[in-house]
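Input record (one chain):
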Amino acid sequence: MKNKILAAITAVLGLLAAIGPRTLFPVCSAAEMKMKCYYAANAEVAVGIIAAIVGIAIILIDKNKIRITLSAVQAILGLVIILIPTAIIGVCGSPMMHCVSTTKPALIVIGALDITVSVILALLIARDISIEKKTR
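The corresponding structure, as predicted from the sequence alone:
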């Protein structure tokens, strides 16, 4: 039961990464010129949607070995969520910009939470596999 709750949390974190940079903690307005944060937000939408799908797959799939693999993939996606605004694409250069003060920190927190929950989930699933083997 708690495994499914943790998997649902990873799916929600993926959705937050996908919709957050456009709604909840938006990047700078790209009315005149598209800046780095605009492209970072687009990349976060793609990665966030994939993370949400992986989280849902962890809930729906019954085979524990596959669920561990998907949890590892989810942790990697959490790392990518962090790396997009910090290293891969980046955000605007000025610390006064909204993307630097709001979007980037929010995505770092979401990515870190996704990594943490995914690793805990993988460890719990591995423990379940170990318990199953001992009871046989």
